[in-house]
Every structure is written in C-alpha cells, then in structure tokens.
C-alpha cells in the first residue's frame, strides 16, 4: 500500500509538470499568443518552446524513474530550467515594449507564472525526496548498526 501511494505521488507530480511543460511549449503560440517573426517576443516564444519540451521530458522521466536519487537530480534540473524559463521573457530576450500588446500584457505574465510554478513544485519535491532519502538512510544505518552490535557481541564471546 505504501509503495502504491509513492507511485501515485510520483505519477501525479510528473503529470502536473508535463502539463506545465506543454503550456510553456504551446502557450506562446496558441493560448497566450506572441507577436510576429521580427519582434523580440517571437524569439522568446521560440525559446520557451525549447524550454517547454525540456520540462515535458523531465516530467515524463519523473513518472518513469523510481530511484529517489535520480528523481532528486531531475527536480534540481527542473528548478534551474524553471528559473531560466522565467528569465527569457523578463531579462534574457524580453517581449515587446508596448504595454498593450498581448505578448506584454498576457504572454509574459503567463510564462512567468508557469515558470515560477514549475520552480516551486520542483523545489518542494526536492525537499520531499530528500526527506524520503534521509528516512531510508536512517533505516539502513539502524539495521546495519544492529547487525554490527550482534556481530561484535559474538566476536567478543569467541575471544573469551
């Protein structure tokens, strides 16, 4: 039952991240549209397409991989990808300078919100996976310590 719950959490988290990656990849083109091909926002949209595909891949890997250490690494990567995604429309490339344009009024805040959400979800998952890993290490050390103490006691008996 416990393993089943962990699998569900892993799948739910991976599905949420995959959906957010899909929104990052497709959103600037179909949901919160960016301007034409000569504007900065067009290039921000192209960059977000690549970032979104990367987030989708990391989300799918989060669902597929069961190792805590690997998922911890995937989530650390998601944190940095989310930060980079937020920096594209705000600082690295930018969007149109006219505040009433849809890319400035809708696309940039939407991308920023999704990016922050990806980063925060990954950060929370890093802490969650770290606590799981710590519990496993503590259980392993406890069981190993117990075996060593029995071994030491038997060794001391043989010495006498």
The sequence of SSEs as H and E is HHHH
Radius of gyration: 23 Å
Give me the secondary-structure category: mainly alpha
Spans with pLDDT under 50 lasting ≥5 residues? none
Strand content: under 5%
How many structural units, i.e. domains?
A: 1
Helix content: over 70%
- Tell me the major beta sheet: none
Number of strands: 0
| End-to-end CA span | 48 Å
What does this entry look like structurally?
With 160 residues, the chain is mainly α. The protein has one domain. It is built from four helices and no strands. It has helices spanning 2-31, 40-64, 68-92, 102-159. Helix 1 runs antiparallel to helix 2 (40-64) and helix 3 (68-92) runs antiparallel to helix 4 (102-159). The radius of gyration is 23 Å and the shape is elongated. The model has no long low-confidence stretch (mean pLDDT 86).
Offer a quick outline of the entry.
The protein has about 160 residues and is mainly α. The chain has helices spanning about 1-30, 40-65, 70-90, 100-160.
Outline the secondary-structure elements.
Blueprint: H1 2-31, H2 40-64, H3 68-92, H4 102-159
Helix pairs in contact: 1-2, 1-4, 2-3, 3-4
Short key terms for the protein model shown above:
160 residues, mainly alpha, 86% helix, elongated
